[in-house]
Amino acid sequence: MPVPILLVTGFLGAGKTTLVNRILQQADGRRIAAVVNDFGAINIDAELIVGAEDGVVSLANGCICCSLEGDLLRTLSNLLRRAPRPEAIVIETSGVADPEDIIRNLMDPVVWREAPLETVLCVADATSPEPDLGDPLLLSQLRVADLVAISKGDLVDGPALDARRRALSQINRRAAVIEATGGDIPLDLVFPEVGTVRERTMRPKRPSIERFESFNWTSEEPISLAAFQQAIGRLASRLVRAKGILDTIGKPDCRYLFQLAGGRATLAPLDRDDPGQGGTRIVFITEIGKITQPEIDEILSGARRD
Fold it and tell me: Which end of the chain has fewer beta carbons closer than 10 Å to its terminal beta carbon, N or C?
């Protein structure tokens, strides 16, 4: 029996991992495999995915719309050879990925016969500024979607949420637009009982444009939370996205999840029993030329001292 694929796309920091986690939590024993792609050598998102009955496969240090195309197809092939096979596959793309290129790869006849692309879901941030809807990458992500899920709706008022819903509907009139605060979305919308595999007409492949680059910062020793927050304040204006897991001085039993998106930084205790790999690991994503690795290293060097 064919294994349906759900492709989850959306801009940097929109809330894709939160939504994928909610889907897996609602799986009710269904064997769902998750393929997670992150733009950087450290795949933070793969560590945050929990509850995949058929495992999490990490694709890091590239974007599956370009440099990791072969890895994606090999990964799908390996998943389909598992016994028992997964009943569904969720692919979470990097926020810098153009889903048109990914969809084109998934339409390969060999893949399509075994694992048809059933739903393309785009996560759209309700709190992002209105001009962001004109970003070419975000427009590409929205226009190929069958379903648009508005995230972070609880952070805006009712009129603003309604306006965002109307704007998204104008961009893609054929997609259903729903609110998915906290990633909450009915499972039957993304994996219908009756298959709804759609025929898709794609535009010719366009030249790849290098727009973003990523940098990593790690520390094996615990860091000072106060010094880290000061360092992020100096870096934030030049970052498009940042995320990481922190080990902090004075709290050996508590690790923190750090996120920066849309100019807003959050820091929260990492709510999981398995602490995973130790140490501090952070990925910074920025537009090319905005910052350098030596600058990041210098600014964050003080975080290692209490």
Answer: N
